[in-house]
Amino acid sequence: MYNKELLIRDSLPPLEPKEFNEFRTTLDVPATYKPDLRDFKIDAVDCFVNMSVNNLEGFEEFPNHDIITGCQQYVDHMIAKNGIKGLQIFEHDYHYYKKIHPNIEYVTLDTLSKDRPLLMAMPFPGYLGKHPSMDEIISLCNQKDIAVHLDCAWMSCAFDINFNFDQPCIKSFAMSFSKAYAMNWSKVGVRWTREKDQHDSISVLNDMKSVPWLNMYVAQKYMGQFEIDHCVKKYKEKYMDICKNLKLRPSNIIHACHSLDRKTLYGLKKLID
Predict the structure, then answer these.
(1) Parts of the chain belonging to CATH 3.40.640.10
(2) Domain 32-225 is of which CATH architecture?
(3) pLDDT tens digit sequence for 203-250
(4) What string of H, E and C letters represents the secondary structure of 177-233?
(5) pLDDT at site 33
(6) Cβ contacts of residue 225 below 8 Å, gap of 6+?
(7) Nearest-CA neighbor of 138 among 178, 146, 117?
(8) Contact, 91 vs 126, CB < 8 A?
(9) Less CB within 10 Å around the terminal CB: N or C of the chain?
(10) Cα–Cα dist 136/138, whole Å
């Protein structure tokens, strides 16, 4: 029924159903458009918080919300602030880290230390879901007072994730619309922080209203037309059927899966869309 040749090996592009592309052709930004940052933040936060395919808690303990140009800005901000060597990063996280620092030394559970913040994806790319040691990682970071910052870029294309952000060690996290709506062409998202740092570059840019207005307009329109977990709700049954038919191991990411031995990651875009 499904052609295994359409599997995308080691590349995991997000789903882009035809209704997204059709809707994109109807967008027409008014020449006088000027966004209300407060309203956008409220709508975007509500959109992520009310995602029904995952069970996420603890948002209310992070009252400061900043607009970001996707989670890439969040990641680059952390690197600019700390230096790539000033961050702790686990192996099999975002491949970007290896590209910008080929000799990167990854941290392990045994080498986690208080002197550097931990930047970590959640869901985690190498495992296509929560890191299998996530609970232990959080527990250790709480014990050692290690600041944790979570890149939740894939949360909007994930399902069956249970997580409580309200852990003492977690200082910030970010989500974006890129994977939810295939909006890599118009990146925008939200960063949550416990406390506002007046000298933080993202905070400063938000205070200056130097944020991606056109991207915000696009996201606002998509939020009004589609649920944030539209792709998961539409394709989850088909996703499971593909995995069963092709003898693949399902993950918690709607556009990606594992080989049965977990050694290979496959993108399913060509099979699902």
Answers:
(1) 32-225
(2) 3-Layer(aba) Sandwich (3.40)
(3) 999 999 999 999 999 999 999 999 999 999 999 999 999 999 999 999
(4) CHHHHCCCCCCCEEEEECCCCCCCHHHHHHHCCCCCHHHHHHHHHHHHHCCCCHHHH
(5) 87
(6) 23
(7) 146
(8) yes
(9) N
(10) 5
